[in-house]
User: Which sequence fits this backbone?
């Protein structure tokens, strides 16, 4: 009996073991279809998602976000600690890390990179690490960061792309007098510690990454990462063409699949339609200044905005615009943002209540207004057309104006727009960035709407140095309570990142912040 | 195209050329549908029907429904209004202005012609779609601005045609006769010469109208043409692009409407050319 | 010598045209609302960042200063750097313009191959069913928006039948031609329809002319008549039309390059307009203007060769 059960047990263990170890296959180039080309692959001076989202494959940070974006993992640093006062961070560097050109990474590289990232003259991301005061290296494997004040976000900030470690000596040897000039030269042949190296870049067409032979990471088989020999990005702006290439097998993966095609690709036996959780929120931004265009602005009226919120059927929008892929928002920030508060969808559909609120407002008969949407964008078109129908019963006549991004941004920044479709993706795994743009008026007038709430402003400022997690959570909860009920935003739905991969692609993921991670990707033959 | 003085008619005198009849009928019908869309459309083209999303052509919806449940037949019919407007307004100002300028320049010759040649070169040399996009971006989206943008560039083509014709006419005997009789230049240009020169411009106008509809559809694809929820054939085709495999009817029927209307313009143009050609 | 002076005169005429275009594009591009910094930064744009970037780009200088700097750069041949891509505009043009040129030349050739023989058939068999059929088919081709017909061709011949690659540009001259065939075909549809119609009309004109009737009556074989008179006139019309159609071809190329993922000048132009990348828009416009003007010169020369009456 005993013998049998032991045998049975070992057999079960063996089988279980076999199943778990689906052996990663090495080799091969992955072809990935992108909708737009990158612009400037440099951690500190870049401006756009198209750069940020692929940078982690070339440059690495001290700390790395987990797959779900909520936690932190060791990257180029293996351990870290924050002092009780919250104004000093000590990190232990990983040993044996080399840059892609074979040069060992030193503490000096780290010190220099962090200082450069936090320099207010450099680029637009320095605000994420604005609290950094001094960076020193007491020994070859330790980094000491002193902050100007306690900063609860500093660890998350050290996992953001702009703090990636670059090679100081190489950068300073670049021709040019300014940081910008040197950075442009450095970016031509970027040297980082990441799993891939930029081999060639045919602008607007193809970008080829090849494996970094000096990469420190190891795979599950004990051999160095990455599993792939390389990644080739192909730029295919037209959605339909991108999908066609994926279906024909020319591409192994394609990003930004239009929601209308998600179900179709899901049903395709050769394709794995992934919906990676994201921090993406979709909303309508309303200008709430008292006067607009020399006339009184109906959107200034709280009751009007609440009525519009109640009349907007988010479930219907999710159905008709995202084809069921989205989920109604429970707060202005996505549920995957730390410090998010709220568990019921905002403003559930209630036309009767909406009509009642309009009747109580200063505009019982309705009014004429307009919305600015991105020209040619199918999602925006769907949203605006649907809202046009939904607000009709309230007497609100919505005129739809399509514009290109630059024109719309001009009106947006001037604060002369009436309404626009909007959205947000976080760049850092913390609630402070989105809150500063949406609700903290001193930054950009609350998304250029002119909305202002003193309590929210004070709470935000306090949260920036509040180290007690419970207290901080309460601060953000209160901010969200106020903003969600009286803010200038009509929050609609959250959407995932729709990425379609061929069935034989494994180990690829996109984190909620948007970064595409090819580090552990492999293709089965 | 060189017009030789003697032609053999290809049709029986006294009857309108067949292409003109067919083309003209199509156009008149299109005009009628466009003016009274409510007579033909079974539904309101803008009303959503959440219960009937992406329905294939069937009894309730002969041409199917789109991703909002809107009836495609009604949308295609209402698009006649907008597209006929586009065909006309995007071209008529260019036609009139171009004809006037072309006539004046062709008659005057000399410096005016040289200067005009430069302007024409400059306008034609600039990539047309890019110029239209730039102008629409500056002025804002919408049909009226599209008309402005298209006319700003399009008049040059008419002017070129007319100016070439006027130059030929100017050298004929009856023009000399007019001058000898002491008629003013203006009178000679517009009352005597122009009627004999206008044929190629009119024929071009017919083609231009069909091309204007297509331009509207390209702009619709880029989001810079007719604004939602206006039904316009080009926009309808662009809307259906994501559904080519799953709901082909959204793009195909507006496409057929464009083909039919384009055919109407082209046949009418050919017929008109025949009619006017023989009259000379 | 007359030929050389003709060419010289035409090139001389090019200069004021280019200057005019330069001024127009400089003004137009700056009339566009927005600026390069906010175009790229989008919703993240903070005023301080936008101002700093615009300052670094020299966009806060008065317009006339910027214009003269621009003129100087054009004359010295240095067209500046792309604001967003940070590489020289001249380099971008060298990379992208040839692609578009190849695409449009292929489209023009395909259009002629399609239109010429069928125009003859339609003209000879005028008012018979064959004529109507040919004209009908071309009408359909003319009426389909480029993005739609392109997508259909790509789906059927690229993805399903695998006869052609699914978009892209390829490596090496022959590979380029292979990749560009479908997009060139798409572009050729509308051009060939226009060509066919006017060719057919021109051929009919000539066939009806009395001197052709006279030649036939004198017993000169119809084949010879066709060859010498009709073909020559047909070619003259074709060439004239080419010149006028270059604008249409280039415009169509913009959308075709998007649909087929071709790294050409049309797509670059549009992306630069959207991104308010002034140096690229300005530089590319001039390059295109020079290109188109040279095309006109070429077509005029061919016309003159075919019909010496044309040169004044």
Assistant:
């Amino acid at each position: 009996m005993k013998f049998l059960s032991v045998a049975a047990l070992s057999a079960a263990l063996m089988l279980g073991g076999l199943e778990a170890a689906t052996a990663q296959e090495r080799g091969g180039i992955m072809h990935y279809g992108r909708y737009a080309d990158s612009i400037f692959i440099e951690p500190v001076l870049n401006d756009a998602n198209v750069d940020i989202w692929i940078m982690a494959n070339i440059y690495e940070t001290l700390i790395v976000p987990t797959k779900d974006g909520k936690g932190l993992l060791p990257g180029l640093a293996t351990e870290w600690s924050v002092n009780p006062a919250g104004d000093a961070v000590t990190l232990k560097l990983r040993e044996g890390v080399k840059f892609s050109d074979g040069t060992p990474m030193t503490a000096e590289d780290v010190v220099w990179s962090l200082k450069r990232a936090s320099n207010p003259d450099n680029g637009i991301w320095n605000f994420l690490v604005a609290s950094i005061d001094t960076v020193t290296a007491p020994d070859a494997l330790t980094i000491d960061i002193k902050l100007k004040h306690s900063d609860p976000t500093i660890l998350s900030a050290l996992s953001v792309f702009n703090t990636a470690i670059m090679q100081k000596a190489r950068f300073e040897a670049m021709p040019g007098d300014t940081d910008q000039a040197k950075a442009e030269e450095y970016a031509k042949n970027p040297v980082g510690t990441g799993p891939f190296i930029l081999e060639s870049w045919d602008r607007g067409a193809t970008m080829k990454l090849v494996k970094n032979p000096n990469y420190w990471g190891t795979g599950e088989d004990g051999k160095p990462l990455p599993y792939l020999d390389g990644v080739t990005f192909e730029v295919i702006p037209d959605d339909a063409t991108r999908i066609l290439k994926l279906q024909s097998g020319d591409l192994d993966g394609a990003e930004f699949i239009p929601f209308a095609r998600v179900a179709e690709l899901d049903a395709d036996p050769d394709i794995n339609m992934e919906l990676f959780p994201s921090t993406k929120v979709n909303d309508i931004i309303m200008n709430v200044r008292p006067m607009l265009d020399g006339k009184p602005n109906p959107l200034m009226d709280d009751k009007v905005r609440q009525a519009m919120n109640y009349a907007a059927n988010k479930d219907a929008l999710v159905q008709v615009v995202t084809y069921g892929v989205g989920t109604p928002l429970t707060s202005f920030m996505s549920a995957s943002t730390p410090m998010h508060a709220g568990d019921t969808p905002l403003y559930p559909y209630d036309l009767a209540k909406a009509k009642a609120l309009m009747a109580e407002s200063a505009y019982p008969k309705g009014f004429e207004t307009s919305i600015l949407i991105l020209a040619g964008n199918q999602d925006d078109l769907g949203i605006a057309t649907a809202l046009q129908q939904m607000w009709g019963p309230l007497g609100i006549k919505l005129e739809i104006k399509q514009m290109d991004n630059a024109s719309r941004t001009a009106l947006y920044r001037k604060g002369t727009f009436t309404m626009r479709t909007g959205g947000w993706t976080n760049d850092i795994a913390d609630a402070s960035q989105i809150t500063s743009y949406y609700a903290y008026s001193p930054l950009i007038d609350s998304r250029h709407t002119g909305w202002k709430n003193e309590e929210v402003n004070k709470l935000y400022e306090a949260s920036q140095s509040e180290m007690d997690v419970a207290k901080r959570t309460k601060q953000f909860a209160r901010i969200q309570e106020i903003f969600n009920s009286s803010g200038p935003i009509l929050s609609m739905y959250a959407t995932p990142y729709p990425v379609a991969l061929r069935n034989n692609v494994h180990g690829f993921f996109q984190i909620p912040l948007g970064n595409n991670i090819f580090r552990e990707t492999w293709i089965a033959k | 195209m060189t017009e030789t003085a003697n032609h053999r008619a290809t049709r029986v005198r006294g009857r309108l050329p067949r292409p003109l009849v067919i083309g003209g009928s199509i156009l008149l019908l299109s005009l009628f549908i466009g003016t009274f869309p409510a007579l033909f459309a079974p539904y309101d083209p803008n009303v959503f029907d959440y219960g009937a999303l992406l329905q294939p052509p069937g009894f309730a919806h002969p041409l199917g429904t789109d991703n909002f449940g809107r009836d495609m037949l009604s949308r295609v019919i209402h698009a006649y209004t907008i597209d006929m407007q586009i065909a006309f307004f995007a071209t008529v100002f260019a036609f009139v202005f171009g004809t006037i300028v072309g006539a004046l320049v062709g008659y005057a010759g000399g410096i005016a012609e040289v200067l005009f040649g430069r302007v024409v070169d400059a306008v034609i040399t600039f990539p047309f779609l890019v110029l239209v996009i730039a102008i629409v971006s500056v002025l804002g989206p919408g049909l009226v601005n599209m008309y402005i943008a298209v006319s700003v560039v399009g008049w040059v083509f008419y002017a070129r045609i007319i100016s070439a014709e006027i130059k030929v006419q100017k050298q004929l005997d009856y023009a000399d006769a007019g001058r000898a009789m002491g008629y003013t230049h203006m009178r000679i240009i517009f009352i005597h010469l122009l009627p004999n020169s206008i044929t190629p411009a009119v024929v071009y106008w017919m083609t231009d109208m069909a091309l204007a509809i297509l331009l509207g559809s390209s702009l619709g694809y880029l989001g810079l043409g007719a604004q939602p929820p206006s039904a316009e054939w080009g926009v309808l085709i662009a809307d259906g692009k994501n559904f080519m495999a799953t709901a082909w009817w959204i793009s195909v029927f507006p496409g057929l409407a464009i083909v039919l209307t384009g055919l109407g313009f082209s046949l009418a143009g050919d017929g008109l050319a025949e009619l006017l050609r023989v009259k000379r | 010598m007359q030929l050389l002076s003709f060419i010289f005169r035409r090139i001389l005429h090019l200069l004021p045209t280019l200057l005019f275009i330069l001024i127009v594009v400089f003004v137009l591009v700056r009339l566009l609302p927005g600026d390069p910094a906010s175009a790229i930064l989008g919703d993240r744009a903070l005023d301080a960042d936008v101002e700093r970037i615009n300052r670094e780009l020299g966009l806060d200088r008065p317009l006339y200063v910027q214009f003269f700097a621009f003129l100087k750069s054009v004359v010295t041949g240095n067209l500046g750097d792309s604001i967003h891509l940070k590489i020289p505009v001249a380099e971008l043009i060298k990379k992208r313009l040839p692609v578009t040129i190849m695409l449009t030349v292929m489209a023009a050739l395909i259009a002629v191959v399609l239109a010429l023989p069928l125009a003859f058939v339609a003209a000879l068999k005028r008012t018979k069913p064959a004529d109507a059929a040919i004209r009908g088919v071309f009408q359909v081709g003319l009426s389909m928006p480029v993005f739609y017909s392109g997508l259909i061709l790509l789906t059927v011949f690229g993805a399903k039948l695998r006869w052609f690659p699914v978009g892209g540009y390829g490596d090496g001259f022959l590979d380029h031609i292979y990749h560009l065939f479908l997009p060139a075909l798409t572009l050729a549809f509308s051009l060939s329809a226009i060509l066919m119609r006017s060719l057919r009309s021109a051929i009919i004109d000539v066939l009806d002319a009395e001197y052709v009737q006279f030649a036939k009556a004198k017993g000169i074989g119809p084949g010879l008549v066709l060859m010498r008179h009709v073909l020559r006139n047909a070619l003259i019309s074709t060439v004239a039309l080419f010149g006028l159609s270059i604008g249409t071809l280039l415009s169509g190329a913009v959308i075709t390059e998007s649909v087929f993922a071709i790294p050409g000048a049309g797509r670059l132009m549009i992306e630069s307009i959207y991104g308010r990348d002034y140096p690229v828009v300005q530089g590319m416009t001039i390059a295109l203007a020079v290109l188109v003007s040279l095309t006109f010169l070429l077509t005029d020369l061919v016309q003159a060769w075919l019909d010496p009456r044309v040169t004044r």
In short: The radius of gyration of chain A is 25 Å. Residues 1-21 of chain A have pLDDT under 50 and may be disordered. The interface with chain B takes residues 239-240, 258, 260-261, 264, 316, 319-320, 374-378, 381-382, 384-386, 388-389, 399-404, 407 of chain A (CB under 8 Å).
